[in-house]
């Protein structure tokens, strides 16, 4: 037994010696060692470090993209809040033009229920609808869940027709409000017409008496300031801008800059001649015969009138604060034979004139106040049985030549005689609205020069009665002056509101509580 155990121990010792020899041989020859794969602990360590580096890269990229998006969003926010197109924050509408067929004019926010006192220091522009081409039809959104067709009638001037702008009931209400207010005669005729057609002259005094009235210091010499002192009249009762310009030109031609009675008589008589020839151009005196009145559309007015104003804001996409400070709605009644000669609704800009609506913030040294109307919206309230068309004599002419208005004894200004010769005539249809721009764009989003092609008039009514309403949007060609005017009106409204609140009388309930 002991011998067997000794043999087994010897065999184990021999096997141990062989393993030690094999290890020593392997250390001396590395190439003979068998391939040993990496341990599991080592492999797991490598995989964990790779996963961590990938996750770190993804997190960094995500944060980088979020940062870039935030920067872009901030830039867009600053651009759209400070850029043009808004008169006041939150009140304006985008100034993008109406595009191709089927596009809709954006429907702005409803007009505020009270005049907002807001900051007008930001720059703003005047949106302008694109005409595309004559006959082009586009959809406009004027009332919720409904749209109207707007057709381009001409490009010079930019003129649109919108059928169904007013309902039959709305037309009836506006006519009744005008009748309730009372209509005034607006008859201005040429002095050369017969006594049955001509109106009484506005001035029934002689030239010598006019000279004496203007001669404030009674030195029998007229200075420029003496003439200007009686010329700041919006209606031009005795001196229109053209008449005044002629008189001042004659005064400046004198060496001493003074007019004697004889000098004044020659200059004044020439300026008062109607239909005079100047530089080969025919100048006709404006004539019209109709009855009209004015309807206030602000707070406290009839809801139909306020609806029309809000609808006009939707159509024109102009800032509500701009539209709310414009002229009241003019309502005109044309009876049999009534008409108005071709004329421009707005005026050219001159250094000696100032806009009537911004005179509070305007140049007090300006000689004459004139109407500055960016656009006109005319509403047909009835359909005349015959005649009464709105005529645009030179619409879409290749060129505008004032001399061409009166050739071969034909005066296109005189709608009584030459209405049928106009390039474009629009028959009045109840509920239809016309929109045209009286001024071109200055290329910078503001009002430019007068569009001479906007010359228009009303043909005589042959049978029936024609009711029409006119709404104008007043804008000063001087951008800064318009902003100053808006700010001044807002400040006055704020001061008035504060005063009314301070002196508001106590109601019966307040008195009861005090007692």
UniProtKB/TrEMBL annotation:
- Disordered: region residues: 1-38, 93-120
Q: Write down the SMART domains for this protein, in alphabetical order.
A: P4Hc
Pfam families per UniProt: 2OG-FeII_Oxy_3
Question: What cofactor is needed?
Answer: L-ascorbate
Q: Does the keyword Metal-binding apply?
A: yes
Q: Name one GO molecular function term.
A: procollagen-proline 4-dioxygenase activity
Question: Domain Fe2OG dioxygenase: where?
Answer: 325-475
Which residue windows does the record flag with biased composition (Acidic residues)?
A: 1-26
Oxidoreductase as a keyword?
yes
A GO-annotated cellular component: endoplasmic reticulum
Annotated InterPro entries: EF_Hand_1_Ca_BS, Oxoglu/Fe-dep_dioxygenase_dom, P4HA-like, Pro_4_hyd_alph, Pro_4_hyd_alph_FE2OG_OXY
Q: Which UniProt keywords apply?
A: Dioxygenase, Iron, Membrane, Metal-binding, Oxidoreductase, Transmembrane, Transmembrane helix, Vitamin C
Transmembrane segments annotated in the record for this chain: 55-80
UniProt name for this protein: Fe2OG dioxygenase domain-containing protein
Q: Which organism is it from?
A: Pleuronectes platessa (European plaice)
């Amino acid at each position: 037994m002991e011998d067997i155990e000794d043999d087994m121990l010897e065999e184990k010792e021999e096997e141990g010696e062989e393993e030690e020899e094999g290890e020593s041989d392997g250390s001396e020859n590395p190439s003979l060692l068998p391939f040993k794969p990496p341990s599991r602990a080592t492999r797991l360590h490598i995989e964990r470090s790779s996963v961590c580096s990938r996750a770190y890269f993804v997190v960094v990229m995500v944060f980088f993209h979020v940062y870039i998006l935030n920067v872009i969003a901030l830039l867009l926010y600053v651009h759209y809040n400070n850029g043009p197109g808004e008169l006041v924050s939150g009140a304006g509408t985008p100034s993008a033009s109406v595009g191709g067929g089927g596009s809709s004019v954006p429907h702005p926010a409803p007009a505020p229920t009270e005049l907002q006192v807001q900051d007008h220091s930001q720059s703003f522009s005047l949106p302008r609808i694109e005409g595309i081409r004559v006959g082009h039809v586009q959809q406009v959104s004027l009332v919720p869940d409904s749209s109207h067709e707007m057709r381009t009638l001409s490009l010079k001037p930019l003129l649109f027709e919108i059928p169904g702008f007013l309902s039959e009931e709305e037309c009836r209400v506006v006519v009744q409000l005008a009748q309730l207010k009372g209509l005034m005669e607006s008859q201005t005729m040429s002095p050369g017409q017969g006594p049955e057609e001509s109106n009484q002259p506005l001035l029934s005094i002689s030239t010598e008496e006019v000279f004496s009235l203007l001669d404030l210091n009674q030195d029998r010499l007229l200075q420029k300031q003496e003439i200007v002192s009686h010329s700041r009249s919006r209606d031009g009762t005795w001196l229109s801008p053209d008449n005044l310009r002629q008189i001042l030109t004659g005064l400046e031609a004198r060496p001493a800059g003074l007019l004697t009675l004889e000098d004044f008589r020659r200059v004044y008589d020439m300026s008062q001649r109607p239909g005079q020839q100047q530089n080969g151009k025919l100048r006709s005196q404006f004539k019209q015969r109709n009855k009209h009145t004015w309807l206030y559309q602000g707070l406290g007015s009839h809801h139909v009138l306020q609806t029309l104003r809000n609808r006009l804001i939707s159509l024109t996409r102009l800032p509500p604060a701009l539209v709310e400070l414009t002229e009241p709605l003019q309502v005109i009644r044309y009876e049999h034979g009534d008409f108005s000669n071709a004329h421009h609704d707005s005026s050219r800009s001159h250094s000696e004139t100032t806009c009537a609506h911004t005179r509070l913030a305007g140049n007090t040294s300006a000689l004459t106040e004139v109407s500055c109307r960016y656009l006109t919206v005319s509403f047909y309230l009835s359909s005349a049985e015959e005649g009464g068309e709105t005529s645009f004599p030179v619409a879409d002419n290749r060129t505008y030549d004032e001399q061409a208005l009166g050739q071969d004894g034909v005066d296109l200004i005189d709608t009584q005689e030459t209405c049928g010769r106009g390039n474009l005539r629009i028959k009045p249809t109840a509920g239809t609205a016309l929109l045209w721009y009286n001024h071109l764009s200055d290329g910078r989003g503001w009002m430019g020069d007068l569009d001479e092609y906007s010359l228009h008039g009303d043909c005589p009514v042959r049978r029936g009665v024609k009711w029409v309403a006119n709404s104008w949007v007043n804008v000063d060609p001087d951008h800064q002056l318009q902003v100053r005017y808006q700010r001044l009106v807002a400040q006055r409204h704020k001061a008035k509101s504060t005063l009314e609140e301070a002196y508001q009388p106590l109601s019966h309930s307040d008195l009861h509580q005090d007692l």
